[in-house]
Amino acid sequence: MRVLVLGTAMVDETMAAAVFPHAGATVIAGPAERDLGGKGANQALVMRRAGLDVRLVAPVGGDTAGEWVAGELAGEGLDPADLVPVEVPTDRSLIFVGPGGENAIASIVAAAECIDERLARESVELLGPGDLLVMQGNLTLAATRAALAAARAAGALTLLNPSPARPDIASLVPLADCLVVNEGEARLLGGRDDALQAAEALRASGAGLVVVTLGARGALALDADGSVAVEAEPVRPVDTTGAGDVFTAIFAACRYGRAMPIEASLRAAGRAAALAVTRHGTRAAFPSRTEIAAIIGADR
Ligand code: ATP
């Protein structure tokens, strides 16, 4: 199975903050850390570490940030030749992490918005039956729709993690063989407060398998055969940034890369994500190849 991740690769600047800034306020933060980020890059590199054959198509500017992103991706075993050069600066996120591990993020997605429908369709041309397209919510709605539809037409499976969620992304739900959403996204797109009811509504709108992540309460999944829920690992969180990306990537690696049952895939994804929340940073917190191999092996 080949996996194509079509999404973002950017520079994350993370700062610890005792309180989050609000309008009119200045807060003292620090220390600051710089790392590779972007939901596309995060998910692609975790799937690569899980041993999948992954390509990442993501836009980068012709600046030093873009060169740095390319070098970091190469170091993760992802081919920088798949990156798409664009005429605007490489995207960036500013991430504030609070004392309880919670975060507030501001992202610039000007590069992401350069991926148009034609480029989106062209980039999925390498996919065929049995392959997997993985997308998130950072590209334009039109580009995301075009890529998902083209992948479907080529016989590939589609996984959509519509984050950050906007109400109009609901129209893409029928194009997802697998939809991975957090609780807020489930509520927004499913129109129900209860996670299971929201998942049922999303299934009724056409998603094949719906996975809802519930933070420290674990995750649930719903497909044509019914629902299954797993608890989260009991850990002390220090930084939850990227937990959803690690969860999505390991779930995909287990369910689609190794044909593991849904429940075992949820458990492995939850273990990997729990490990990430016990460490600071984004990529710096992600589980290593060795850790992922041990987690997946334990759940087979
Ligand atoms: P983020 O935006 O912070 O990356 P998210 O909102 O997309 O995360 P969450 O539901 O918060 O997604 O977390 C994804 C998964 O990570 C959860 O289903 C759970 O398995 C794991 N996780 C998150 N927070 C915790 C925690 N405090 N303790 C244990 N596991 C956690």
Characteristics of this structure?
alpha/beta, UDP-N-acetylmuramoyl-L-alanine:D-glutamate ligase, eight-stranded mixed β-sheet, 34% helix, 25% strand
Q: How is this structure best described in words?
A:
The active site is at residue 245. It is found in: Cytoplasm. Keywords: ATP-binding, Carbohydrate metabolism, Cytoplasm, Kinase, Magnesium, Metal-binding, Nucleotide-binding, Potassium, Transferase. The record marks 10 as: Important for substrate specificity. Its main location: cytoplasm. By secondary structure, the chain is α/β, with parallel strands linked by helices. It has one domain: Ribokinase (UDP-N-acetylmuramoyl-L-alanine:D-glutamate ligase), CATH 3.40.1190.20. Helix content is 34%, strand content 25%. The chain has 9 helices and 14 strands. The strands form 3 sheets. Strands 4-1-9-10-11-12-13-14 form an 8-stranded mixed sheet, with helices on both faces. Helix 3 packs parallel to helix 4 (141-153). It is globular and about 50 Å long. Bound molecules: adenosine-5'-triphosphate. Adenosine-5'-triphosphate (ATP) is lined by residues 163, 182, 213-216, 218-219, 232-233, 235, 237, 240-245, 247, 270, 273-274, 277.
